[in-house]
Specification:
The chain is globular. The N terminus is likely disordered. The longest helix is centred in the N-terminal third of the chain and has 17 residues. The chain starts with 5 loop residues before the first helix and ends in a 13-residue tail after the last helix. By secondary structure, the protein is α+β, with helices and mostly antiparallel strands. Strand 11 and strand 12 form a beta hairpin. The protein has a single domain, classed as Alpha-Beta Complex (Sulfite Oxidase, Chain A, domain 2). The strands form two sheets. Strands 3, 4, 7, 8, 9, 11 and 12 form a seven-stranded mixed β-sheet that branches. A five-stranded mixed β-sheet has the order 2-1-10-5-6. The protein is 23% helix and 20% strand. The chain binds ligand MTE. Ligand MTE binds next to loops.
Length: 316
């Protein structure tokens, strides 16, 4: 007997808000979280993003500190992607039609061999590996995510930066037809971010093309995004189309929008408060009580040497 799907019998706005409830509940509760991720599939059709979690895989179930992975349902259901909406639980729905193929990443600036990489060739040229990283948002929440990606250094070596190249500048696609948030000129689109060249060449810095064993879904920055895990989440620019090697420190979207709140470095640091809130602790999505935020997000051993002699309070 044919069974009605809830999408067929429920007016769309109620259907969406029900689904939102499930994602939201998943984002906030502990062990219920994974259930939240699975339950969504019953409510959704065709539900490409929701089905995502049913077949999601990760090699390891925890990071190197022994922290559990954030359930898939929350990773793909609670997002910041202002090009679509500022509502974290709505991004999934607004981004579902986003076309991330065909896709090219143009790499140029102060390099000997500028190149345009077709997204279809990137996995062949730069095989991906799983990297389980903590991600700490500047807003005070965090997740543990099993990414698929490769070290950015591999791509940069390919284009041969010249000795004048001191920084790397990244740019997200600008396409207000697909990304309606870009019609609002409150932010200076496109989204831009930057790293110092030694940060970009650090082995922890990856270009991620997938998570939970599958290609990135749109809301998570398909088809390719940055992930530098010792920095606040906003550095991890999504849906990258352009990478330039430059001499001057790039001005990011956040530096331009609120320079007194967001600096270039954005290293996770519990001792340096955001002007409007403390950074001492964080809410790990899926946990009930807050946990202490770690310097450099727990990657101090690996990256502290990059900042020797730098005043971290001034260079926030
Ligand atoms: N990249 C673009 N292009 N647009 C954005 O709005 N948000 C940033 C970052 N990258 C953002 C972006 C912020 S504030 C965070 S916390 C992370 O993406 C969130 O990544 P996630 O949605 O995959 O958890």
């Amino acid at each position: 007997m044919y069974k009605f799907k809830s999408s067929e019998i429920t007016p769309e706005h109620i259907y969406f808000s029900r689904r939102r409830f499930v994602v939201g509940a998943g984002a906030l509760t502990g062990s219920l979280l994974f259930l939240g991720g699975c339950k969504q599939s019953e409510l959704t059709s065709p539900g490409e993003s929701i089905n995502f979690c049913e077949t999601a895989v990760a090699q390891n179930a925890m990071d190197e500190l022994g922290d559990a992975l954030t359930p898939c349902g929350s990773v793909i259901g609670y997002n910041n992607f202002y090009e679509f909406t500022t509502d974290k639980e709505e991004v999934l729905f607004r981004a579902r039609e986003f076309r991330s193929s065909p896709w090219e990443v143009k790499v140029g600036g102060l390099v000997n061999k500028p190149a345009t990489f077709d997204m279809d060739d990137i996995p062949k040229k730069f095989p991906v590996e799983e990297r389980i990283y903590r991600m700490r948002c500047v807003e005070g929440w965090s997740m543990v995510i099993p990414w698929l990606g490769f070290s950015l250094s591999k791509l940069l070596k390919e284009v041969e930066p010249t000795s004048r190249a001191k920084y790397v500048r990244f740019e997200t696609l600008y396409d207000p037809k697909q990304m309606p948030g870009q019609k609002d000129d409150y932010f200076g689109w496109p989204y831009v971010e930057g790293l110092r060249i030694d940060e970009a060449m650090h082995d922890l810095t990856i270009l991620a093309t997938g998570l939970y064993g599958k290609p990135l879904p749109p809301q998570c920055g398909a088809p390719i995004r940055l992930m530098a895990p010792w920095k606040y989440g906003f550095k991890n620019i999504k849906s990258i189309v352009k990478i330039d090697l430059v001499e001057e420190m790039p001005v990011s979207l956040w530096m331009k929008s609120a320079p007194h709140e967001y600096g270039f470095y954005a290293n996770v640091n519990p001792q340096v408060d955001h002007p409007r809130w403390s950074q001492v602790s964080e809410r790990r999505i899926g946990e009930l009580s807050r946990r202490r935020t770690l310097l450099f997000n727990g990657y101090e051993k690996e990256v502290a040497n990059l900042y020797e002699g730098l005043d971290l309070a001034k260079n926030y």
